[in-house]
Amino acid sequence: MKRVIWIVPAILFLCVSSKAQETPAWEIYGGYSYLKANLNGSGPNFHMNGGGASVSQNLNNWFGGRLEVSAFGGTFEGTNVTAQTITYGPVFTYRKFDRFVPYAHAQFGDVHASRGYLGISESANKFAMVSGGGVDVKINQLAAIRLQADYLMTRFLSQRQDNLQFSTGLVIRFGHK
User: Fold this and answer.
1) CATH of the domain at 121
2) Which domain holds residue 159?
3) 144 inside domain
4) Is the Cβ–Cβ distance between 173 and 142 less than 8 Å?
5) For residue range 47-97, what is the model confidence (pLDDT) as tens digits?
6) DSSP-based three-state secondary structure for 4
7) What DSSP string runs through 85-152?
8) Residue 78 counted as domain residue
């Protein structure tokens, strides 16, 4: 099974053109997000759906900064709950290919959760860290489809939550570096 995981990216890597892309100055993203919320690996898991948006400024062809906002809703132990994140941090891109741009990022910020989220008694703001990456698949010079997977670490009830977040949506690019 481990070999299969590496075969798909290797095939994609070999099938695309190696022509370099022009670097946009700004990228705006909006789309759907899925969150698998988890209380420290041994606690309850539950699923939340929502959306996210981000603005990225590319300082050169491989480095920039990204501000990202996400909102989720779901049900935990019979209670409707919500969570929102706002994070900022560096993004590292690899713009060697014409059809896709892989990237990695690490962002830090805030998570706000409603009463009932993971059993908390009142809404609260806590520390959040997001790390992960993805790929932007080019539609044309101005637009791309983003596929992203992230690890979202939060802290509620004096415990760390290890959450998984998956997102997809549309990226609009403008300006040139």
Assistant:
1) 2.40.160.20
2) 21-132+153-174
3) no
4) yes
5) 999 999 999 999 999 999 999 999 999 998 888 999 999 999 999 999 999
6) helix
7) EEEEEEEEE----SSEEEEEEEEEEEEEE-TTGGG-SS-EEEEEEEEEEEEEEESSSSEEEEEEEEEE
8) yes
